Amino acid sequence: WGQEVNISIKLDEKAPIISKHIYGHFAEHLGRCIYDGLYVGDTNKIIPNTAGVRNDIIAALKELRIPNLRWPGGCFADTYHWKDGVGPKEERPTIVNRWWGGTTEDNSFGTHDFLNLCEVLGAEPYLSANVGSGTVQELIDWVQYTNHDGKSPMADWRREHGRAQPWKVKYWGVGNETWGCGGNMTAEFYANIYRQYATFMPGWSGETKIVRIASGASEDDYHWTETLMKNVPHHLMEAVALHDYAVFNWEDKGPSLNFDEEVYYKSMEQALKMEEYVTKHVAIMDKYDPDGKVDLFVDEWGGWYDAEPEVKKGVLYQQNTMRDVMIAGTVLNTFNNHARRVKMANLAQMVNVLQAVILTEGEKMIKTPTYHVMNLYKVHQDATLLPTTITNNTAYRGLPSISVSASKSNTEGINISLVNIDANEQIEVVIDLQHISSKKFTAQQLASNNITAHNSFQNPDSVKPMPFKDFKVKGDKLIVNMPKHALVVFNSK
Ligand code: AHR
């Protein structure tokens, strides 16, 4: 065994709960995410479905215990007019998806379809509303339509469309990337627009207290976060967003498969920057909101590569490899460790787009390596964070090799998620367990000899969780031989 990395796990009474919403997802009208992806139409007799949504996808998402789902975009959200997506499907107008390939959509998947799907999944819906090309009235009508119990024009319209009870949607995004596709606004201008929208949003939901999410910064745009925190009264804003994709060159993102070690490390360097970005955005939020009233939602994140060559121009679709396992494992560890302020995150995008957990092709559906990360990490949902410190972390190409987070829950016991990003070396990790009473661990791993290993429609289980046994407990120490580019989740009940 090579160099030894040391980790100690603390028990801290004041440690935060890791919100289950960190394990959230994102469904955008983009490529084959919705149409010919999760939604195959309610008249489809070939692919088994529930109200048009594939049953195999519903089962896979239920297994993940997906806590929330953001919809309908992304950039698409600021072109979307929700009223065109309710009522008889054959009467709905079309919409041209101007950001993503110029595809004409028939609006057959709309508000009812999405919110009913969330009910089936047991997931909280997160509606991302149109500010860029919408109006305040359009947004408050949407809140009233989905949430109002009593008699009102929008609640009556909802009833006419067959839904008596309101869905009580809690999470509302006020525009998306308003610095870019959501309107090319300055931070100062958007802060004022936000105040206007947010003023009229509550009041339709009875006891449901809505969460208004301000469109947030990208990567290291700290001025954006600072402006929102300074210029928006905090009683109008429950959360601020942040977007960060693991992209090392926006002009040439490289392929999702067939990349070399050089490119792998560039992706990892970018993925690991999440730690720095979150730390610095949180520091700004702490300065203006020391009591922690406003949450940070990283409502778009993931690896983003060049679309697969066979995909229509302007549309995104990529494969998913062990590199994505490393991205998801390290980024989720960062979110867990920042659970005090990071209360939601949404991996982009759930089906057939960027770092998807599910890919489909006709009747076939596969679970990607990232699906398995989400499945192994679900033990952290709503568990109490166990703060960790890590020393002697091997650095290769200036990047720390080992990433960790730990939690404790009544149902799942102690959970430790460990990632070794090193492309070539196994690493010995010694974890100090002196504060942990139960030391009988079992473990599952995601590993492969090849960093480009992935699941295909021909070989759907090439990457899947396997039992991991290369560890021992000696006194207070858990000694682990972490294989190269591997992820291991330990559990002790
Ligand atoms: O996820 C693809 C796009 O990335 C989203 O539509 C947008 O919000 C972001 O720029």
TrEMBL record:
SMART domains: Alpha-L-AF_C
Coiled-coil region list: none
Catalytic activity, as annotated: Hydrolysis of terminal non-reducing alpha-L-arabinofuranoside residues in alpha-L-arabinosides
GO terms, biological process: L-arabinose metabolic process; polysaccharide catabolic process
EC numbers for this chain: 3.2.1.55
Any GO MF annotation of the entry: alpha-L-arabinofuranosidase activity
Family according to the record: Belongs to the glycosyl hydrolase 51 family.
Summary of subunit composition and partner proteins: Homohexamer; trimer of dimers.
Name of the protein: non-reducing end alpha-L-arabinofuranosidase
UniProt source species: Croceivirga radicis
